[in-house]
Write a structure and sequence with these properties.
alpha/beta; Aminopeptidase; 20% strand; single chain; 35% helix; six-stranded mixed sheet; Leucine Aminopeptidase, subunit E, domain 1
Length: 446
């Protein structure tokens, strides 16, 4: 995928911003100018132009990034072309590092390690990072793309524990009894399945009581039928991806450990299947968390927040400096923002402003408010909380407010990402929210 041997990479790829297209055109030969104009190429997002030599061999590839640093063209080219290449980004707005990441994204194939092409990277340190980055995102995408019958909670746990990327970390192994005691809301969801819930809990270093680690959480529902409130068939079709939040959290944990050399980090991912059986939780049932907070089940398809509630309470017990969670949580967020732009919530204005500064460079997520008056929508007459509002309004906000109730202290900085973990236009699994949070931690946390 990447190499630092420039003798292997002979074909130039130029990434051109729409705002710099005219300047680029002025520097080109008459042949290239005419070729670009006759093909109506103006560096629009996603546009790919192959320029030949006179004998028909490929001379150069021109990729448009549009006006907003859109790198879908390089991902598309990486996905569908064989060859050896090097990048020129003189007329691009995107950073070279972001172009390399887009190349890695396009080079992915489910459970495939074949190298169809090579891209030259000059610096050895950059090459090492890109190789590691590719391994991380390919693992996460493989997990999301895996069929649910090949990735139940037990298999999922084993895949992570036996993966070489995790060989130097500390795993906290819970017995079935301990999971029932420490993650009771997760067990309420998972008791419907013959595959019992598991919990992935990993630390990158040994922790002491005085430590304040960064805690990263992911929702891991390996398949979501909706439970007794069963989903329609079309809505259930891709629910193998309902563990996508945990897959994103896994990559962020690995990348954070790579960047933050002195930071102690914890990963928590409760894993369960929301199946249908005589043991399924029912609307009207009441379950209690470890802290004793009781939850009435208003809707069995609002199950992911129960896993996250357990994880947030567990995270709070570490006295964390920050909690970040990812979940494929609500359809409401997708209605509002579509599949590519995850919603995020944050209870700390200082940290939220740092995300917004990154968004000014390139928009990658959108903040929604923790609007406290909507807490009334998830009140219950028989429990402390209801797991869902049934009025059909503000579904993503009420889900976030539900989760916020499980923070031990409102002073713990907390990010919640309501993401899709899927792409309608690419190779299934997507990791929306990963790159911006990776950038946030790398630039602001160390």
């Amino acid at each position: 995928m990447f190499t630092n041997d420039n003798t292997e990479c002979s074909t130039k790829i130029s990434v051109i911003s729409q705002s710099k297209f005219d300047k680029w055109l002025l520097t080109q030969s008459s042949f290239t100018k005419n070729w670009a104009l006759s093909n109506n190429f103006k560096a629009e997002s996603g546009k790919i132009l192959k320029i030949p030599y006179e004998d028909g061999r490929l001379k150069e590839v021109i990729l448009g990034e549009g006006a907003d640093k859109n790198l879908e063209a390089i991902s598309a080219f990486s996905a569908s072309n064989i060859g050896n290449y090097y990048i020129s980004c003189k007329f691009a707005k995107s950073k070279e590092s972001e172009i390399y990441k887009a190349w890695a994204w396009g080079n992915y194939n489910y459970q495939s390690k074949s190298k169809k092409n090579l891209l030259y990277v000059k610096e050895q340190k950059e090459l090492e990072f890109l190789t590691f980055y590719s391994d991380c995102i390919n693992l996460s995408r493989d997990l999301i793309n895996s069929p649910a019958n090949k990735l139940n909670p037990s298999i999922y746990y084993s895949k992570i524990k036996n993966n070489n990327l995790f060989k130097s970390f500390n795993f906290i192994d819970y017995t079935e009894k301990e999971i029932n005691s420490n993650f009771p809301l997760t067990c309420a969801v998972g008791k419907s399945s013959s595959s019992k819930p598991k919990v992935i809990e990993i630390t990158n270093r040994k922790l002491s009581k005085k430590d304040k680690p960064l805690v990263i959480i992911g929702k891991g529902v390996t398949f979501d039928t909706g439970g007794v409130n069963i989903k329609p068939g079309t809505s259930m079709r891709n629910m193998k991806k309902d563990m996508g939040g945990s897959a994103i959290a896994i990559s962020l944990f690995l990348l954070a450990n790579y960047f933050l050399k002195k930071t102690k980090i914890v990963l928590i991912a409760p894993i369960a299947e929301n199946a249908i059986s005589s043991k399924s939780m029912r609307p009207g049932d009441v379950y209690s968390s470890v802290s004793g907070k009781s939850v009435e089940i208003a809707h069995t398809d609002a199950e992911g927040r129960l896993l996250l509630a357990d994880a947030i309470e567990k995270a709070s017990s570490y006295n964390p400096c920050m909690i970040i969670d990812f979940a494929t949580l609500t359809g409401a967020a997708r209605v509002a923002l579509g599949e590519d732009l995850p919603a995020y919530f944050c209870n700390n204005e200082t940290f939220a402003k740092k995300i917004e500064n990154l968004n000014k460079e390139k928009l990658r997520c959108w903040r929604l408010p923790l609007y406290s008056p909507y807490l009334s929508k998830i009140k219950s007459q028989v429990a402390d909380l209801s797991n869902a509002s049934l009025d059909g309004m503000a579904g993503s906000i009420t889900a976030a407010l539900f989760l916020q109730e499980f923070l031990k202290s409102p002073n713990i900085p907390w990010f919640h990402f309501d993401t899709f973990a899927w792409s309608q236009d690419s190779k299934g699994a997507a990791l929306q929210g990963l790159d911006i949070m990776s950038d946030f931690l790398r630039k602001n946390f160390n």
